[in-house]
Amino acid sequence: MGWGDLGAFGEPSKETPNLDQMASEGMLFLDFYTANPLCSPSRAALLTGRLPVRNGFYTTNAHARNAYTPQDIVGGIPDSELLLPELLKKAGYINKIIGKWHLGHRPQFHPLKHGFDEWFGSPNCHFGPFDNRALPNIPVYRDWEMIGRYYEDFKIDLKTGEANLTQIYLQEALDFISKQQASQQPFFLYWAIDATHAPVYASKHFLGTSQRGLYGDAVREIDDSIGKILKHLQKLGISENTLVFFTSDNGAALISAPKQGGSNGPFLCGKQTTFEGGMREPAIAWWPGHIPAGGVSHQLGNVMDLFTTGLSLAGLQPPSDRQIDGIDLLPAMLQGKLIDRPIFYYRGNEMMAVRVGLYKAHYWTWSNSWEEFSKGIDFCPGQNVSGVTTHIQEEHTTLPLLFHLGRDPGEKYPLSFASDEYQRAMERISVVVQEHKETMVPGEPQLNVCDKAVM
């Protein structure tokens, strides 16, 4: 989902009334990022509080390529990583994941081996349908038991886009919340639906209801479901004890637009790139009675912060035996404080860019290869910026391309290398980058097991 897909972030059709109300009752984070412009590395970062290059979710084959886990990849989340649900169990939490896991499909990578008590969903996304022989359709699990497969037992109509999966995931969420409230158990729910990932789907009630086509139908159903979850918390009388955070794992996939992809608002490019459109996400925090209503924060945030913030809520400290990249967002949420921190933009094992304050320096630029581009694969359709959206891996490590995101959120006008502003900004950024490099002890790459791990 893209930064520009919600009414609260300026989407003109205003088809997300529940998320917009969530924002009006809580806090918008306008400068919130994912840790990687692709699904699996960003999810690994969310649950470990660590950059993918530290937790093993990166590739080294083909410089700066992204990593993902389709069903034929053997890798997954390493046992050495400590996931948020594993740590929350120490404080008595019951943990459930609903939807897309994407951190490995083999038994040793199963969510219930990494801190979750319950799971309803799939190891990967609903990419298929496959041929059921060499590439079977993606399985759906309830805990350890496979209960069916996408397209077969869980129908997705590729002609109409109809599928009831979001409704199933919604009911799973409501039932889990009710059960934990009845037993007075603290809980962590990771609701990871995938309806806005191509091939996009929505249930019959929502099909044809959006001005934005099928993608808009899917967004409207997600919005409606989140509204029902928030109302359920209020009905059960536990909303003031429950922090709810909404965000996305990467920007809208413009390669699937316009029919199957969303909007990244004013930002450049989309999913798969380290331009703003690929990594800046919509983000809303909601906690009635604690987070002041109608708040807007310019805190630089990251999905990794949900790890550290979740531990803080549970009265736990982050692990001290490893580098944690997430920060505790509670001071920003509850007191409106701004914490000085950089944002690092990685593809594979390469730091492509860094943001410090309102300045963003690109040390490498690359959208996708000429070979892919010639086949119609375009991560930046209609957004060619000369010297910026490059189709070869352009190195700028000696003189990084520098943008002021306040004046130029679309990354169209790099600052002059000769300007005083460039010199002052790069002096500060260079210190941040050097300090970051000194902390880098990369984990063992888990995904570069075959060429198919590269996308």
What do we call the CATH homologous superfamily of the largest domain? Alkaline Phosphatase, subunit A
Order of helices and strands: HEEHHHEEEEHEHEHEEEEHHEEEEHEEH
How much is the radius of gyration in Å?
Answer: 21 Å
Total number of beta strands: 18
- List the total number of helices: 11
CATH topology value of the largest domain = Alkaline Phosphatase, subunit A
Largest sheet: 5 strands, mixed
Count of spatially separate domains: 2
As laid out across the biggest beta sheet, the strand order is 6-5-4-3-7
Tell me what portion of residues adopts beta-strand conformation. 15-25%
Task: Give the class from helix and strand content and strand pairing.
Answer: alpha+beta
Oligomer: single chain
Report how far the terminal alpha carbons are from each other.
19 Å
Outline type: globular
What number is the mean pLDDT? 93
CATH class of the largest domain: Alpha Beta
Binned, the helix content reads 10-25%
Stretches where pLDDT falls below 50 for ≥5 residues? 447-455
CATH architecture of the largest domain: 3-Layer(aba) Sandwich
What does this structure look like?
With 455 residues, the protein is of the alpha+beta class. It has two domains: 334 residues, 3-Layer(aba) Sandwich (Alkaline Phosphatase, subunit A), CATH 3.40.720.10; 93 residues, Arylsulfatase, C-terminal domain (2-Layer Sandwich). The strands form five sheets. A five-stranded mixed β-sheet has the order 6-5-4-3-7, covered by helices on one side. Strands 8-10-1-11 form a four-stranded mixed β-sheet, covered by helices on one side. A hairpin with a 2-residue loop joins strand 14 and strand 15. Helix 1 packs across helix 6. The longest helix is centred in the middle third of the chain and has 23 residues. The protein is globular, with a radius of gyration of 21 Å. The two termini are 19 Å apart. The C terminus is likely disordered.
